[in-house]
């Protein structure tokens, strides 16, 4: 799933390649991709792209045209991606069972495709006059890389929490942009169990978690800076230290990276670095094995 660093890299890429260009047409291919109907996608015909922003994991393509100022909001979900095309194929795309979900064609012949792998379709596109009209944007918590998201703000945010820290980090209404992969990475850097309750965090641990969060995300953004959209997935995978690396040695201590599986996801961690050497039981309500 694309998370804050990858979406920020896509934002920067589109800011360079898309801003100032004119949209010829936006063509939905998958029925499920478009989540709004007013204004219609045809309102973007002839509009000029004025900017590209990011709200958590949402891309926000701002336009100006005959219909006024509009925003094309894209959430790539778990298996979605953006593919830039210097030259788009001739003719409109044909609906089918392939991964193509939506095509944005520019008047210069270039543009981009939104694709989604797998059978579960969650990629979402909204065309709105104000990004806050999208419920997923309206409920977002603060951006973890925002200049004003300091230790005091982070401490205040966690003060009322009564859940495990892994779940808190992934809650978009609490902190925007962190998903399954980078929460694993942050907790590994902070040397914390994913199941540690937030209410048990000491001031020192809270400070360590805040530092790990900011540094992990900032380093991932920096690694992705300047990369073409097609290279971002490989960069993310190569930069992860524990997530997706079950059975491999921990790059810090050499212990074997372990996994806890759930019905629709899994997490990875290092027992030596994060749980005092004790493996976590691989079940939904995991506790440390005694």
From TrEMBL:
SUPFAM superfamilies: Glucocorticoid receptor-like (DNA-binding domain), N-terminal domain of MutM-like DNA repair proteins, S13-like H2TH domain
Domain Formamidopyrimidine-DNA glycosylase catalytic, chain residue ranges per copy: 2-97
Zinc in keyword set: yes
MF terms (GO), sorted A to Z: 8-oxo-7,8-dihydroguanine DNA N-glycosylase activity; damaged DNA binding; DNA-(apurinic or apyrimidinic site) endonuclease activity; lyase activity; zinc ion binding
Any GO BP annotation: base-excision repair
Reactions the enzyme catalyzes: Hydrolysis of DNA containing ring-opened 7-methylguanine residues, releasing 2,6-diamino-4-hydroxy-5-(N-methyl)formamidopyrimidine
Record has DNA damage as a keyword: yes
Annotated coiled-coil segments of the chain: none
The entry's keywords: DNA damage, DNA repair, DNA-binding, Glycosidase, Hydrolase, Lyase, Metal-binding, Multifunctional enzyme, Zinc, Zinc-finger
One Pfam short name: Fapy_DNA_glyco
Cofactor(s) needed for function: Zn(2+)
FPG-type domain span: 241-275
Family: Belongs to the FPG family.
Official protein name in the record: DNA lyase
Biological classification of the source: Bacteria, Bacillati, Actinomycetota, Actinomycetes, Kitasatosporales
